[in-house]
Amino acid sequence: MTGQALPVDGPAFDAALAASDATLLDSDGGQAVLPVRRWSEPADADDAWLLDRCTGPTVDLGCGPGRLLAALARRGVQALGVDHSPVAQEQCRARGVVMLRRDVFARVPGEGRWSHVLLADGNIGIGGDPLRLLERAAGLLAVGGTVLVETDPEAARHWRGSVRVRTERGTGPSIPWARVGTDALRRLAPPLGLAVVAERPGPRAFVALRR
């Protein structure tokens, strides 16, 4: 599930990955149910919008339990997951998919040569700075590659703050987070050399950005 001295992704979501129910509490007092069961299940029909566009080597930033990695492997697509969570690492290992346990801003193999970067399940929020995360994603791509982003269903939303994960075991630490809709993403992408080439609105909304 994004440099900073501390890891900006996985560990804060460990409790959610290990739970059957979890809620994300934001610093403005809002809350949202995290779809933790979907994360642990096989990729679904909505995920296919992302998967169908992965026609070459793909890196999944904030890969979580690895359902998209497993789906890509079944399609014969080379894929690598990156996540700082030890729980995600164990879940990916159980699925038999390739995952590196590290900060999404740390170096990964093949920088500048990947065909696609996935930012699914709201992972555009990692680190609370969508512009920095998009710049990171763009830097992983070969020219002509795409960043495939799951955006906020509210197209105009561009929120930055902090969140905490609550499960039956309690509430975790506060971490920086963001929510970005399609319209906001259109404004962020061009200065980074990224252009919107496809999108799908809906309860789960997606955008493809080409470098």
Text of the CATH class: Alpha Beta
Determine Rg (CA atoms, Å).
Answer: 16 Å
Instruction: Tell me roughly what share of residues is in helical segments.
Output: 10-25%
- State the CATH architecture: 3-Layer(aba) Sandwich
User: How many β-strands, per DSSP?
Assistant: 12
Structural class: alpha/beta
Average pLDDT: 93
Q: Tell me the β content.
A: 25-35%
Low-confidence stretches: 1-9
Strand order of the largest sheet: 5-4-3-6-7-12-11
The number of helical elements comes to: 7
Q: What is the approximate shape?
A: globular
Descriptive account of the structure:
- The protein is α/β, with parallel strands linked by helices and 211 residues long.
- The protein has one domain (42-160, 177-210): 3-Layer(aba) Sandwich (Rossmann fold).
- Helix content is 24%, strand content 32%.
- The protein has helices at residues 14-17, 36-40, 47-51, 67-74, 86-95, 130-140, 182-188, and strands at residues 22-26, 31-34, 58-61, 79-83, 99-101, 114-119, 141-151, 158-167, 170-171, 175-180, 195-200, 205-210.
- Strands 5-4-3-6-7-12-11 form a seven-stranded mixed sheet, sandwiched between helices. Strands 1, 2, 8, 9 and 10 form a five-stranded antiparallel sheet that branches.
- Strand 4 (79-83), helix 5 (86-95) and strand 5 (99-101) form a beta-alpha-beta unit.
- The longest helix has 11 residues, at 130-140.
- The chain is globular.
- The two termini are 23 Å apart.
- The model is unreliable at 1-9 (pLDDT under 50).
